[in-house]
Design brief:
Blueprint (H helix, E strand, L loop, with lengths): L2 H14 L7 H24 L14 E6 L6 H8 L17 E7 L2 E7 L14 H9 L3 E7 L6 H10 L2 E3 L6 E5 L5 E5 L7 H10 L5 E5 L5 H9 L3 E3 L1 E6 L6 H10 L6 E2 L8 H11 L2 E6 L12 E4 L4 H8 L3 H4 E7 L8 E3 L9 E7 L2
Parallel strand pairs: 1-3, 1-4, 4-10, 5-9, 7-8, 10-11, 12-16
Antiparallel strand pairs: 2-3, 6-8, 12-13, 14-15, 14-16
Length: 365
């Protein structure tokens, strides 16, 4: 039977099944079977020869995709943030292709991608949906853009993103599994679990595991376990942006702020440049970028030209960015900033840096 048809049949069976204690395990197995079949479907599509592949070459210090329904002002926002020009009109589907541009902020060059509007059924290919979501899943950050009149469609768009295997503002599950030849399934955990072992075993069997050692380091849900076993999920940070606030009163904005509080949304008017500075700062922060300033042994620090790195970067990353021989010739580094206890502290290659640290590299003669 066709995999897509089988998936739809299982989804319909879940809808028909009344949820209660007696059916709980059955529904769980159905969900696990759907997750496994979707994994198989994706793997088959990847293997298909001659399949058209569309993508955008990543450039700059980070890549950000603009995702949202049609006519919410993505292109106008894109034009205000970058030096590119995307066609703007007051009707749907103005943007028919992916347009790249660059946001220059705090010394960083952040690639922005203006995408066509996402519609219902996008995760199954409607309206170039799969192409759009394929690009988005490889981004460093997703901007979820809606306007004050499309807030009600947020859940629909989130569903399409979720169905495509993109997990927003989540970390990968803290789970590991090792197949073995015999001995059945052994489950170990470092934290108390809400899921019972019978449910965990049922999900594992649906994914074809008969003999394996499973180690769980978080209180997982069935969905998180299935995501781990599927192995094709993308974990991408996201910012919710509500545009066109110039068209409603303050009371409406406050109400949206309360209902959307878990998302910590950014309210803007691209037309009137309201909230744009806040959005730029959020983009910089949520892409995980930091600025490091270099201090030469003779001369002043150039605060106009920072070295842009990722959060968690070390002195060794600075050395590699400067010259391939610097790691081998490294003696120590001197640091001024938030990552050290006192100014000019001597540190080694493994020292982790923070935003706006000043670094002097001292090399062997």
């Amino acid at each position: 039977m066709d995999i897509e048809k089988r998936i739809k049949e299982l989804e319909e069976e879940i809808k028909r099944t009344q949820y209660n204690k007696a059916t709980e395990k059955h529904i769980l197995r159905l969900k696990a079977r759907i997750a496994y079949l979707k994994k198989e479907l994706e793997e088959r599509k990847k293997k298909q020869k001659g399949q058209a592949r569309k993508g955008v070459k990543k450039s700059g210090d980070a890549t950000v995709s603009l995702i949202g329904p049609p006519s919410v002002g993505k292109s106008m926002l894109f034009n205000k943030l970058t030096n590119a020009k995307s066609e703007v009109a007051e009707y749907a589907f103005t943007t028919l292709d992916v347009l790249p541009g660059v946001l220059k902020y705090k010394g960083a060059e952040i690639q922005l991608l203006d995408m066509p509007g996402l519609i219902e059924g996008a995760s199954y290919g409607r309206g170039k949906g799969r192409e759009i979501l394929s690009i988005a899943r490889n981004s460093d950050l997703i901007l979820l853009i809606f306007d004050v009149y499309t807030v009600e469609f947020i859940e629909n768009v989130l569903k399409e993103i979720y169905n495509f295997g993109i997990r927003l503002n989540q970390e990968p599950p803290k789970i590991s599994i090792k197949k073995k030849d015999k001995g059945g399934i052994n489950i170990a955990s470092t934290v108390p679990l809400s899921m019972d072992k019978e449910s965990i075993m049922a999900i594992l069997r649906e994914f074809g595991y008969i003999n394996a050692d499973l180690l769980i380091k978080e209180d997982i849900t069935p969905e998180r376990l299935m995501d781990f076993l599927a192995g094709n999920r993308a974990y991408v940070p996201a910012i919710l942006v509500i545009n066109k606030i110039d068209l409603v009163d303050d009371g409406t904005i406050e109400e949206y702020g309360r209902t959307l509080a878990p998302w910590d949304p950014v309210f803007i008017s691209a037309l009137e440049n309201k909230g744009m500075d806040i959005l730029k700062e959020r983009i910089f922060q949520d892409t995980g970028l930091i600025r490091v300033y270099l201090k030469p042994q003779s001369g002043k620090v150039d605060f106009e030209a920072p070295l842009i790195l990722r959060k968690g970067s070390t002195v060794e990353d600075v050395c590699k960015a400067l010259h391939r021989d610097f790691v081998e010739k490294f003696r120590y580094a001197m640091i001024w900033g938030k990552s050290v206890k006192f100014p000019g502290q001597h540190v080694g290659l493994e020292h982790k840096l923070e935003d706006e640290d000043i670094v002097r590299i001292v090399l062997k003669r």
